[in-house]
Amino acid sequence: MPPELSDDRVATVCRVLIDHGVRFVIIGGMAARLHDTGHATIDIDICPSNDKANLSNLAEALRELGARLRVEGDPDGVPFDPHPDMLREVETMTLITDYGPLDLCLAPAGFPDGYPTLREHASILVVGAARVPVASLEDVVASKRAAGRPKDIVVLAVLEAHLRRES
User: Fold this and answer.
1) Where are the domains of the chain?
2) 7, 28, 83, 116 from 51: Cα distances, Å
3) What is the mean pLDDT of residues 44-56?
4) CATH for the 7-160 domain, from 3.30.460.40, 1.20.1290.10, 3.40.50.300, 3.40.50.11810
5) Which of 1, 19, 63, 111 is deepest in the core (most CB within 10 A)?
6) Can you name the residues that pair with 93 across neighbouring β-strands?
7) String of b and e for 60-83 (b: at least 16 CB within 10 Å)?
8) For 96-145, what is each residue's pLDDT tens digit?
9) In 6-157, where do the E strands start and end?
10) What's the CA gap between 145 and 129, in Å, rounded?
């Protein structure tokens, strides 16, 4: 299993996204980690806004990050052109960048409209020197519960306990 991403690498990816004007929210395991739950993760999951201008900005940011399609058995990934029209057609995309794994999820489990609802409850947290939008822990838990994948079910009890301690 690859090592967990350092805060510096997470901050670098987020700074590139922000510098390109990408509107996004960090979701999933990275969001849980950034909420100090002790959750370990090896990638950054983001939910970007899916409007045309934002997907154009995202495509430029992905080019700068050296994004490639992440495929099993090829640690370097497969080159692709992150064209906005192609990004508009996907719900999820697993990528490898020059700074580590990055997953795009335009309609996370439990949040079919994606970005607008997640952004509404998101917090701005500081990672490295970057101020990044991070999904609320409540939304992370709701999404993991809705996904129902074994890897999500395993962490639900820990995340829910963290939520109870915080309230």
Assistant:
1) 7-160
2) 29, 22, 13, 11
3) 97
4) 3.30.460.40
5) 111
6) 104
7) bbbeebebbebeeeeeebeeeebe
8) 999 999 999 999 999 999 999 999 999 999 998 889 999 999 999 999 99
9) 24-27, 44-48, 68-71, 74-78, 92-97, 100-105, 123-127, 130-134
10) 32
